[in-house]
């Protein structure tokens, strides 16, 4: 069935796509330059060079911070960091209050407890309608144990991945898959 594309229908359709939850951070730990926001519009872009992208709404505080930052980090949240996702999704004077962080390369805030950190240098910024697409070249990668936080349909999902058995697909297989 075809229907006109309204903002409401478009948003509802896109909410059916499950995505990981990230917090993008920039600035320097412990200073007024530290900034961060929850972002689900995040994706890998290229293996060579290693590039990722995040889409940031224009007019938001984080938009200016990220579009002008030389360095930023992508913190892939773990399934036990729902409160962190909500903290960085809301407007606040200090989103970092009570959130354990450490300084990454160049002082960029890294959220402790995340399942992965990607430290990036800004590579490009592109027009994306009411958002800008910020592309980062990944300079440092850190992966820890844990399950990712996943969001779809307006809810965080419990995938129960810790209880699965025999369902692991080696990452090397994914790289060599024919698609």
Percent of sequence in beta strands: 35-45%
Q: How many structurally independent domains? A: 1
Euclidean distance between termini CA atoms = 29 Å
Query: Which percent bin holds the helix content?
Result: 10-25%
CATH topology type: Pnp Oxidase, Chain A
| CATH H-level homologous superfamily name | Electron Transport, Fmn-binding Protein, Chain A
Give the SSE layout:
Elements: H1 7-14, E1 19-20, E2 22-26, E3 35-39, E4 42-46, E5 51-57, H2 61-68, E6 71-76, H3 82-89, E7 101-103, E8 109-111, E9 116-128, E10 131-143, E11 150-152, E12 155-157, H4 171-176
Antiparallel strand pairs: 1-11, 2-3, 2-6, 4-5, 5-10, 6-9, 7-8, 9-10, 11-12
Pfam families: Flavin_Reduct
Keywords: Oxidoreductase
Protein name: NADH-FMN oxidoreductase RutF, flavin reductase (DIM6/NTAB) family
Tag the structure with descriptive keywords.
single chain; 179 residues; alpha+beta; Pnp Oxidase, Chain A; seven-stranded antiparallel sheet; three-stranded antiparallel sheet; globular; disordered C terminus
